[in-house]
Design goal:
Layout lengths: L4 E4 L6 E2 L1 H13 L7 H6 L5 H8 L5 H19 L4 E2 L3 H10 L3 E5 L4 H11 L7 E3 L12 H10 L6 E5 L2 H9 L3 E5 L6 H6 L4 E3 L5 H7 L11
Parallel strand pairs: 1-4, 1-6, 4-5, 6-7, 7-8
Antiparallel strand pairs: 2-3
Length: about 230
Amino acid sequence: MRFSGYIFDVEGTLVDSVQQNVLCLQEALAQFGVLVSYEVLQLYSGLDGDQTLQLVAEELDHTQRKRVLEVKAKLYEAKYLPSVKAFPDVREVFETLRNQGGRIALATDCKGTALKRYLSLLNVEGLIESMACGDDVEHGKPDPKLVGLALRKLGVSAGQAVMIGDTPYDAEAGLGAGTAAAGLLTGGFAREALIKAGCFAVAAEIGDLLACLEKGSPHVQPVARS
């Protein structure tokens, strides 16, 4: 086994929720008179919510950004969450990792009703050793604290762990916490963007992950950003 610890993002990695999240944020912003294209918002999918708003809605102050995120959360639960589905093969991949001696953690910015719904969809009860979520930290990814917390709960050294997500921000958070990083294309980011962020392996979807981890070299370093 190359790794003894596997830390997974959830949204866009284990559950198919990227489109719902982007559309929901777009709708919430529109309620505040801020119109942003889907394509622009998708570029920041997976980034900490407040950081995203600072980039796409510079005219909003801290209080307004907080209100937008509150509206988004309520709107998401009521309108978008019911259509989210788990990606195929998640349980099978988790079972394989566990059977090979791996330990599994989740590190996700989501929380509350959405997180409970995701866990019910995934059907991985008994396969996860630990979890860190949005309730545990002040800032989301790429801040490494979330991954660091999941790592400490998992009880595995950073050098023996890999962070697996669907965005460059997942990779940056993992590398910041000292783990390796691997990516999936299910979040809508190009393979090159994930590699540039530091992913040593990139798979089309989670069902292809194990083969990609075997082929990749965990010593690949992130490409410096211009």
